[in-house]
Amino acid sequence: MGGIGRSWDPATVSALVAVSGSFVGGFAFNFKCVLTQRHHDRKDLLAKKIAHREQLVSDFISEGARVGQRDDPQREFSNICRRELESLRSVL
Q: Do the beta carbons of residue 64 and residue 73 sit within 8 Å?
């Protein structure tokens, strides 16, 4: 490597450029691999969380059916309203 006022040998410059290009290319490749793996890991974790939540909802619904909910809430509300109307008619 030359000092002040001296020029560099073209072979040396060419070799330095090749080595630095290899380092940059290797770093970029490894960086891409790390980012890709991280993305896949997050995607897998999200899929597992969704599957777990779906299982919890399924268990909740099954347990509710097992406990003995006879009707759906809308039907029970309409039955209550009907009884209220019948009681109002009998009063009037």
A: no
